[in-house]
Amino acid sequence: xxxxxxxxxxxxxxxxxxxxxxxxxxxxxxxxxxxxxxxxxxxxxxxxxxxxxxxxxxxxxxxxxxxxxxxxxxxxxxxxxxxxxxxxxxxxxxxxxxxxxxxxxxxxxxxxxxxxxxxxxxxxxxxxxxxxxxxxxxxxxxxxxxxxxxxxxxxxxxxxxxxxxxxxxxxxxxxxxxxxxxxxxxxxxxxxxxxxxxxxxxxxxxxxxxxxxxxxxxxxxxxxxxxxxxxxxxxxxxxxxxxxxx
Length: 246
Ligand code: GUN
Hints:
Elements: H1 2-13, H2 28-40, H3 59-65, H4 77-84, H5 93-104, E1 113-117, H6 124-132, E2 141-145, H7 152-157, E3 161-164, E4 182-185, E5 189-192, E6 200-203, H8 208-211, E7 217-218, H9 225-245
Parallel strand pairs: 1-2, 1-3, 3-4, 4-7
Antiparallel strand pairs: 5-6
Helix pairs in contact: 5-6, 5-9
Guanine binds next to helix 5.
């Protein structure tokens, strides 16, 4: 779903994109060779490897193989290091999309308590870093929660801004939410549903109907953070183009 949307959004915005679909049983070496040739191809400004990868391939090795100047996902350790230090870099697309959304809706962040649930390299960890950074959509006090956080409910109740990125459908319920909080739902899980046309529905990490009654702002799923992720990705790709040829 993601890949198809990325290709389509590239077409709509006038980016030239190439989808390389390797068989699932491809070796790690084949993937690394493919990345090498894309690194060396001067016609290409941005590379992203859609995750997750099959178990026999090291995600770490693959991400490190991408030229950091073409790493439009912002996952390369040197780009994450730059992000932590507040240096110019590619901000990972989902956190970037969330910052754009906070900016667009003029959500105040300075001095607020942001709670992030989930510590993934793709969303939770960079999101918590950005929200605590000295940037316009930052300057929050941030609590990063994860599967070993014992008093999660009590911590969530203290959040002015709650980012749910744990991958458990409808995990966040109204009893966990401070009235007036801003709720950002990063979850996208397919849940089987015989009444749905495709046999499944996409569910977020937040129980939208009940939480929207107490929140001051909330993102829907689908149609929320997912769309902004692609906007973040395209902005990074445009930046890579400008860096390389501008
Ligand atoms: N899988 C889930 N989210 C992402 C993302 O933002 N980028 C890539 N490459 N893979 C993902």
